[in-house]
């Protein structure tokens, strides 16, 4: 019995020993042949992968004039596990920063909310966008700061102080940007506004990488295997904008000291020739490490220079809107070109009065447009909304009216290729049913017929109205980018969009707009070189009225449609018409005549006192 127990013990011990040996052999095999854990750890000490940032695409105007380019800059990167023992005070003095900033930045790097994907083993951005001079000074001392490295990239530079709202700017990504697109890492840059934002995917390019060798002290000794495993970055695509820089410059000069916008469109293509928003700012101040400080200053300015009024300002269009009413009334058979209405200094009916300036009365449609008669268009809307032969109810008539407005590009975003566009407001039957508990008539809403009341448009929508009339009933969605290197434009910016109005009715409105220039409210837009069509607007406001102009030229084969909106500028003829005329002359003739240049300088020096403006 004892021999059996002894035999069993020997068997158990022998089996255990064999198993231990087998496990040991398997583990060695796994570690040495199957697993790359130790190899990767060794590589992480000897090798470092550095991101190679692509050059961002350049931006030019329609004539090839450079607007935005790249300039070399340098970032300081830090690998947190390698920078232990660095002389913090020496580092701060070398970079011209204080220790408070240093400790705050180190805490931000380690904050996994601010810096998703943080790892102490990978390079993190410590300080961005050093100039060439700053880079040269720090590079001489870099050996004293283990764990810190210099990474080359580029920053945006702008050739002049123009088109800030169009171009936009570039800034450091935030957590939301990183969460939305895994292309980005903490410390990367992204377009923040304007074209830089809306065409970020095309402009940014594709990152590359470079693997470098390091010695035991972490110093870079060269490229690993002569760059065999490096990946070259792919540059971003260049953009050609549709704007004419010289026209943009003139528009910004004319709007000095004023609030408002100028938008010009090439009718045949929908290309935006200029987009001025005043006040503006110099895009050259929004680069480098000072961008954040400058952005805060601009955001606190009560004049709101960061606001792109061309696409974000929602204003009453005033009498420019009468052209859309004429087209609607003609299409629905409410009037004919020969229909006349009386206007005794305004529309007077059942105790309601909408005032108007003095002019001959009664009058048909073409002179009504030429003289901007309020009474005519009030009567037109009143008869449309009260027409029970054609519409069963006021609500049905209102829906028809609204559908025409939407087809003309109002009430919804047009879809311009810039961020932040607003839609304006075109009221519908449900809007008024809610406001008046279902009890309302054409008289209740009569002011919308002259571009007042609840109606609001953006300057871009007003300019697009001019382009649509110039085309006799169609438009292409306005856009700011003309060409993308190696890529087609979105079909939204190449396809025609038609209104619900026959081209024959547009000819009548065109005739009325020509009448306005040749003998009506737009007389200062007349010139000896080409036929201009225009429409003034004096938009009522809680303060001084806004000065508005919408027009196009030449009448046949039009090259430019334009909207000018000057806040608190008074009558449309005060600012809107002369500024619009100067802009059209500059674009069509390629220059201003000496007389026009003198006029331009006069308006450039005119300022409007906005007092303690707040909007």
Q: How would you describe this protein?
A:
This protein has 615 residues and is of the alpha+beta class. It has 2 domains: 48-241, Penicillin-binding protein 2a (Domain 2) (Alpha-Beta Complex), CATH 3.90.1310; 245-291 and 308-604, 3-Layer(aba) Sandwich (Beta-lactamase). 36% of the residues lie in helices and 19% in strands. The protein has 21 helices and 20 strands. Helix 14 crosses helix 19.
Topology readout:
Blueprint: H1 2-34, H2 37-46, E1 47-52, E2 59-60, E3 66-78, H3 88-95, H4 99-110, E4 124-130, H5 132-139, E5 148-158, H6 164-167, E6 170-172, H7 175-180, E7 189-191, H8 194-198, H9 200-204, E8 208-214, E9 220-223, E10 239-241, H10 245-254, E11 260-266, E12 271-278, H11 291-300, H12 309-312, H13 322-331, E13 346-349, E14 352-355, H14 365-371, H15 374-385, H16 394-407, H17 429-436, H18 459-470, E15 474-476, E16 481-484, E17 496-498, H19 503-519, E18 533-539, E19 546-553, E20 560-566, H20 576-589, H21 594-604
Parallel strand pairs: 2-10
Antiparallel strand pairs: 1-8, 2-3, 3-4, 3-5, 6-7, 8-9, 10-16, 11-12, 11-20, 13-14, 15-17, 18-19, 19-20
Helix pairs in contact: 10-20, 13-15, 14-19
